[in-house]
Amino acid sequence: MHYVILVTALILLQYQYFAYSVGMARGKFGVQAPATTGDENFERIYRVHLNTLEQLIVTLPSMWICAYFFRADAAAILGAFFLVGRLIYAAAYKNNPSSRGLGMMIGFLANILLVLSCLYAAIIHFL
């Protein structure tokens, strides 16, 4: 479980970094709160942050369910893949939004596998 804790902390730090990046981008590109549109570069940074939040709703609970009921090592590895996928996604989105697909797919596949492991664990443990 120690690796699951570590990966969870890293995912949360990454999310906080993305939130910080939005704040910095507001100043850099002159987008005053509460506005969420304006400069295209700001909007890209904002979308990385918001999209990551949308994905965390699936990632964190499924990672912990997988760790508890299935395998902690699998949960940590899949969580790490999600983390790396988000890094690739963020870097690609800032430079060329149409190239963000690889990072998105890595995170998406990690989430699908986490959810499937939860379903497998539920079937095995509860039937």
| Content-based structural category | mainly alpha
Which blocks of ≥5 consecutive residues have pLDDT under 50? none
- Helical element count? 4
Give the N-terminus to C-terminus distance in angstroms: 25 Å
Strand content: under 5%
For the largest beta-sheet, the strand count, sense and barrel status come to:
none
CATH architecture assignment: Up-down Bundle
- What CATH first level would be assigned? Mainly Alpha
- Write down how many β-strands occur, each being a DSSP E stretch of 2 or more residues: 0
What is the count of distinct domains? Answer: 1
Query: Rg from C-alpha positions?
Result: 16 Å
- Which fold name is given in CATH as the topology? Four Helix Bundle (Hemerythrin (Met), subunit A)
Quote the average pLDDT: 96
Q: What percent of residues adopt helix (DSSP H or I)?
A: over 70%
Name of the CATH homologous superfamily: Membrane associated eicosanoid/glutathione metabolism-like domain
What overall geometry do the principal axes of the alpha carbons give? elongated
Could you state the order of secondary-structure elements as H and E? Answer: HHHH
